[in-house]
Amino acid sequence: MKGQEWYQADEVAQEYDDKRFSQGGQLIDRREKEAVLEAIMPVEDRSILEIACGTGRFTVMLADRGADVVGLDISAAMLQQGRRKTQGANLEGTLEFLRGDAGRLPFPDDHFDTVVAMRFFHLADDPEAFLREMRRVSREQIVFDTFNRFSARSVYNWALPMGSRLYSKSEVSELLAKTNLTLVDVEDDFLAPYGLYRSIPNGLAEPIRTIDTALGGHPVTDHFASVSYWNTRLR
Description:
Elements: H1 4-7, H2 10-21, H3 25-40, E1 47-51, H4 57-64, E2 68-73, H5 76-86, E3 94-99, E4 112-117, H6 127-137, E5 138-148, H7 153-156, E6 166-167, H8 169-178, E7 181-189, H9 194-198, H10 202-215, H11 219-222, E8 227-234
Parallel strand pairs: 1-2, 1-4, 2-3, 4-5, 5-6
Antiparallel strand pairs: 5-8, 7-8
Helix pairs in contact: 3-4
Keywords: Methyltransferase, Transferase
InterPro entries: Methyltransf_11, SAM-dependent_MTases_sf
GO molecular function: S-adenosylmethionine-dependent methyltransferase activity
């Protein structure tokens, strides 16, 4: 995995949410959570694993809606931030944070209804191996996102601390075929890159998001979207 040392640093975990999901980054957070919920609904009583759960943005949301969730991450510092979010929380479902390696998941086969991996595959050095392991522990569904090769993200990718692996649609389709997964739905979004949104106040980001949404949703413009949200099922 790219950038493991950087990712596991205490100071990165402490600043992670504020740097990415404050200001205009709130719009990114909202859209990502919407994509996950739309793919999984109904959430209540589902058994869900999130790998690379970070500070628990999705794990806490899903547990609060009645799912039984395990959040797994390699970073102890990130997991500690996630646990702090749940202190005193009255969640409808259950939530456990667990430190572990996404390449060797400590669960038996077919253990979860759904496996979620958001903000993960852009760091994967061997995406097929990770996807196979996710498939092994899932009995129904895998939900994940990818950053797209033909997007604005490629322009500033070199400046990111960990860089990004960028994917074409055909590359992801090939990964699904190799791992015996069936595509249920894919949604493309964010013509403007994430970095732009999180660098400006929400009041400025909202009009940009309105234009972005209006231009998106078409075959031509979707080809240049920064991110794709993939909803897949086991064959």
